[in-house]
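TOPIC: backbone geometry
CONTENTS: sequence, structure tokens:
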Amino acid sequence: MDMELNTPSLEILDPGFMEAINRSVPAPFLIKTYQLVDDPATDHIVSWSDDDNNNSNAFVVWRPPEFAKEILPNYFKHNNFSSFVRQLNTYVSSTHSI
């Protein structure tokens, strides 16, 4: 006896559905970056900016060598500060400085 599987077809979904889902979930890089900046234990190396103009939407890497050596490997598969900045630039508009 053959059984037919009743699996939903992706064709019946609204074309904008997946696009909306993808927009609402931050990229893993952004989640990890937020976590490492938001950790109070690392404020001496990286922390949120105190600049009132940015409303805490910016962060400062106070000690790049320590950031690369001690923090990046805990969140990413590398310890290259330049690679981190390059990837960050893909998410930051040109009006912000890095």
Notes: The mean pLDDT is 80. The first strand starts at residue 46 and ends at 48. Residues 29 and 42 are 18 Å apart (CA to CA).
